[in-house]
Amino acid sequence: MRHRRRRGKLNITLMHQRAMGRNLVASLFEYGEIKTTLAKAKAFRPFAEKLITMARKGNIEKAKGTPEGTAAHLHQIRQVAALMPHKPAVRRLFREVAPAVGDRPGGYTRILRFAHGRLGDNAPQALLMLVDKPQDAEAVAAEAASGEA
User: Fold this and answer.
1) What is the Cα–Cα distance from 48 to 118, expressed in whole angstroms?
2) Interacting residues of 62 by C-beta distance below 8 A, sequence separation 6+
3) Contact, 109 vs 93, CB < 8 A?
């Protein structure tokens, strides 16, 4: 039975679901968008949103500048790392993705459907992307320098 289960099984085992979800979300944070099937995008979107919310809360606490805020920030990093043990993705999440969403209360991702299915099995395709894409640090520095001049 599916009592209070929101997402489907995707026809794979629980361990495979967790591993695939971690990999998809890590790629989302690394590249800003991923092309996948519609079912996978719908299944793992809440996981990505939850991680972004946790990172955003940690960054808000760190901005307070108090020792308690720093400890709360570290706690959030550890919580996210426990759910997604991909260090470069966690680093990018806290340094680039969370500051990019700013004060947005939710809805950090969007799903765009493609008009055609995948070649071969005609599976519906979708693009899972971050709404506020983080810019590269070099691009931000160049933009700031050009604005000051």
Assistant:
1) 24
2) 69, 70, 72, 73
3) no
| Contact between residue 61 and residue 110 where contact means Cβ atoms under 8 Å apart | no
Q: What is the DSSP string of 11-61?
A: TS-HHHHHHHHHHHHHHHHHHSEEEEEHHHHHHHHHHHHHHHHHHHHHHHH
Contact assessment for residue 29 and residue 92, using Cβ atoms and an 8 Å cutoff: yes
Give the gyration radius of the chain's Cα atoms: 17
Task: Tell me the one-letter amino acid at 131.
Answer: V
**Reported pTM:** 0.83
- Which of 13, 88, 16, 7 has the alpha carbon at shortest distance from 44? 7
Summarize pLDDT for 13-22 with one digit per residue, the tens: 989 999 999 9
